[in-house]
Amino acid sequence: MESKIALNTEIKGSRQNLIYVLALLVVALVLPIFFQGSPFYLHVLIMILLYASMGQAWNIVSGYAGQISLGHCVFFGAGAYTSSLFLMKAGLTPWIGMFFGVAVSCILALIIGSICFKLKGHYFVIATFVIAEIVLSLVSTIDFFGAAVGLWLPIKSGLVHLQFKTKLPYYYLFLVFTVGIFGFTWLMERSRMGYYFRAIKADPDAAQALGVGLARYKMYALLWSAAFSAVLGTLYAQYVLLIDPNNIFVLKVSLIMALVTVLGGVSTVWGPLIGAAILIPLSEFARVWFSGGGKALDLIIYGSLIVIISIFEPDGIMGLINRIRLKRSQA
Amino acid sequence: MDSSILLQALLTGVAVGCVYALVSVGLSLVYGIMDIINFAHGELLMVGMYGTFFMWVMLGIDPLIALPIIALFMAVVGVFIYKGIIKQIYGSSALAQIFATFGLATFLSSSAQALFTPNFRTIENPIIHGSINIGSIYIGKSEIFAAVVSALAFTLLYLFLNYTNTGRALQATSENKDAATLMGINTEKMFMIGWGISIGLVGIASVVLANYFYIFPGVGTTFGLIAYVAVALGGFGNVMGAFIGGIIIGAVESLSGVLISPVYKYTVVFSVYLIVVLVRPKGILGRS
Amino acid sequence: MPALLNVDNVSKAFGGLMAVSMVSFEVEEGQIVGLIGPNGAGKTTLFSCVSGFYRVTSGKVYFQEREITNLPSDRISHLGIARTFQIVKPLKEMTVLDNVTVGALGHTPKVKEARRQAEELCEFGGLGQKMLFPAQKLTIADKKRLEIIRALATRPTLLMLDETMAGLNPTERLEAVELVKKINREMKITILMIEHVMDIIMPLSHKIVVLDYGRKIAEGPPKEIVRNEEVIKAYLGERYNAQAISG
Questions:
Q1: A254 vs chain C: nearest CA distance in angstroms?
Q2: pLDDT tens, position by position, A77-120
Q3: Pick from C77, C93, C122: CB nearest A210
Q4: Cα–Cα dist C27/C25, whole Å
Q5: Predicted confidence band at A275 (pLDDT cuts at 50, 70, 90)?
Q6: Residues of A near C (CB-CB distance < 8 A)?
Q7: Interface contacts (A, B; CB < 8 Å)
Q8: Residue C200: what pLDDT?
Q9: Nearest CA in chain A to B272
């Protein structure tokens, strides 16, 4: 009897959630029309979508599977650089270049994973950003990658070239991919892989005793995470049209990917979006108002936020919401 | 390649390695006692360096005199960090522990950038300056001073840890917290003392470093990363190992600078980290 | 009939310390075998060697006549051995139902079906009312119950229980004993259990293996073990009253 009740409440909950999701989707589709006149606001919206998606990609391996990486900029950059290099050297459309970006990113993931997954806890975290530092210094000094100057993408126009003259099409482009990544995460949560990821995070020994192959599933998590990060890298490159190592392969990028998710709530579907919706406008406006000092100001805010969340609410905003919900249902 | 160039590189490397060593020892000490990695360790070095710089520029106090003041100040900072942040996340999830000090690091380096601008500062002509030369080898007096002070500080620490009651209590807490509590050791007090010593050592390192090195907001990041490598090399939790690790890393960095290229010297150092943790996770002297 | 589990001269050393030394015994299908011994005798270490958490220093382990020595624990789980942990390891932040579902997913890839099986097992094991509780909020007795149910979800042929009775009050103990009996008789699962509480393990077991300082010092039916001089000495002279094992 109890069991049927369990499943029924879950189904009812899902129907409610579906309505919220559809409402949100409608808002997302309609929202930019209000900001048509302002490229700056559209830029902020695009950045929210970008970082929400990047955060979600990070969430897969570091949130759900608990393998905390602070070097994720590597996968993002692999996608950006691969598709851009193919475009510049071979004239290949970024739509196909994207796939190559994913391939390169996944190969990196295989290498990094097989090195890093043998390590535990803090060894692993340090290894991820040490590897990112190595990649940064290599890309900054090798001419093929554009060295420190970076890559200037050729100006084209049209969907087939994945470039647009105005911001509005970019918004919808990013929206499509954001919905895709979030949808994947939602499905993953409910799949066998999702259960296994969460088990690995909760207690690797217990998970193993229950038949979960640790190395294998950690690698799956990293591969998906790397693949999505790479796709976003390509989209980003096509948006800004100039990529250089000091804006891509840096700790700041890895940090923001992590922070939006930690702020919103790791291991939840909505966490990265909530975190990005709060953090990105904050940092973009800070950049405009305090131009000059602004660059450091957003990091000051990030730093303080991370410390505060870690101490008071490590489960992020979703964690806070869930706690309140639980108290209400018990009352 | 001229052997004197290699020798020069080796000596310079060992000298800076002593400073790395001192920084790493603090990191290893705290890890040993609490199982927490302080990701803000390098940034605290930066704080000490700026402190030294401002004492020089605004109060006219030479680093040599400022040394005990900054060391004490940083030790107090360490205790405050423990009480304000670390204590709250002790026992929390790995995520909370990692991000708490990481957030602090970000906060410190970006605050420094906002307050002091990214410009490189130096202390011109402090009491200890210039260089001595032996044959064709030049070595800065500041660098020798830094190495000597670091070695001295480490020796004092080593004696403290092994020959005083408090020091032995610290070691006991490091080996086995539960057993230490059963023996009547106040682990809370040990944590506080550990953090005080750890950051105090960083304070000493920051003064001797500020004497000759560039002072800028990002200086801590590289030193911090190198500290992790040194600690991993020596074995997490082993203080002697961290010291030796630091010196080795200093030498490796300097030698790869001349043998390969200055641009890739950190790449070599980081590769060393990866190799060490894969091949011998325990490090040279570490406990598992 | 060949034994289900054959532990053959297994030794495990940590540095210079021999935690387990040349231990051999067999477990027949359908039996409940008890593994007892004073604290530090090496019982949990032996479990970890058999279930793939430690690599043996020497010796071999056979399950269903094939060698499983040093296989990783996830492989061993798939082969049909499940274990519980002495210090319970619930998958924190996941619900009771989710915990058990993870176990079921080992052989049933479809989540919906695995969850259904998990629900049935929760009912069977007495956690039906608490399926949606976060695992960390359970009482210690329920957490131990969860360990067992979760292990059962993997449909093991051999279930290894590590001190599931410790810390339970008499009522809880009775329930746990009934559960173990149900598992053995209704689900036809062979059980190897480490236990300290003599009143429980003696009546439950078909056979007892006794370890002391890493070595096997006795093996046989409970009635004999209770009278064994070596065993009595090992337990610091505690005399186990032979009359207590009646029933």
A1: 26
A2: 999 999 999 999 998 999 999 999 999 999 999 988 888 887 77
A3: C77
A4: 7
A5: very high
A6: 2-3, 6, 190-192, 195-196, 198-199, 202-203, 205-214, 267
A7: 120
A8: 84
A9: A130
| Residue A225 scores a pLDDT above 80 | yes
C205's CB contacts (< 8 A; 6+ apart) are C32, C33, C34, C193, C222
DSSP assignment of chain C equals ---SEEEEEEEEEETTEEEEEEEEEEE-TT-EEEEE-STTSSHHHHHHHHTTSS--SEEEEEETTEE-TT--HHHHHHHTEEE--SS----TTSBHHHHHHHHHTTT---HHHHHHHHHHHHHHHT-GGGTTSBGGGS-HHHHHHHHHHHHHHT--SEEEEESTTTT--HHHHHHHHHHHHHHHHTS--EEEEE-S-HHHHHHH-SEEEEEETTEEEEEE-HHHHHH-HHHHHHTTTPPPPGGGG--
Which residues in B lie closer than 8 A to residue A141 (C-beta atoms)?
263-264
Q: Is the per-residue pLDDT at B232 higher than 90?
A: no
ipTM for the complex? 0.89
| Burial class (CB within 10 angstroms; exposed 0-12, middle 13-18, buried 19+) of A204 | middle
**In sequence order, which residues have a C-beta less than 8 Å from that of residue C206 and are 6 or more positions away?**
C31, C32, C33, C221
pLDDT digits (tens, 9 = 90+) for A57-89: 999 999 999 999 999 999 999 999 999 999 999
Q: Are B38 and B102 in contact (CB under 8 A)?
A: no
Contact A305 B99 (CB under 8 A): no
Report pLDDT digits (tens) over C76-98. 999 999 999 989 999 988 999 99
- Residue in C77, C111, C128 nearest the CB of A209: C77
User: A290-299: which pairs have CB atoms within 8 A and are 24 or more residues apart?
Assistant: A293/B114, A295/B113, A296/B110, A296/B111, A296/B113, A296/B114, A297/B110, A297/B114, A299/A252, A299/B106, A299/B107, A299/B109, A299/B110, A299/B113
Q: Which carries the bigger pLDDT value, residue B245 or residue B285?
A: B245
Determine the Cα–Cα distance for residues C191 and C83; give it in Å rounded to an integer. Answer: 10
Nearest residue in A to B89, CA atom = A311
Q: Which residue on chain A is closest to C123 by alpha carbon?
A: A3
- Taking CA–CA distances from A4, the nearest residue in chain C reads C119
* pLDDT of res. C112: 94
Question: Cβ distance C111 to A191 under 8 Å?
Answer: yes
Contact at CB, A293 and B114, closer than 8 angstroms: yes
Chain A environment of C151 (Cβ under 8 Å): 209-210
Q: Are strands C158-162 and C81-83 parallel, antiparallel or unpaired?
A: parallel
Q: Considering only CA atoms, which of A128, A123, A136 is closest in space to residue A58?
A: A128
Residue A142: name the closest of B78, C218, B263, B136 by CA: B263
Question: How many beta carbons lie within 10 A of that of residue C235, not counting itself?
Answer: 16
The distance of C216 to chain A (nearest Cα, Å) reads 26
Could you tell me the residue ranges of all domains in chain C? 5-89+155-245
Comparing A178-182, B42-46, C24-28, C126-130, which segment has the lowest mean pLDDT? Answer: C126-130
Between 3.30.70.120, 1.10.10.410, 3.20.20.10, 3.40.50.300, what CATH number should domain C5-89+155-245 receive?
Answer: 3.40.50.300
**Cross-chain Cβ contact C92/A205 below 8 Å:** no
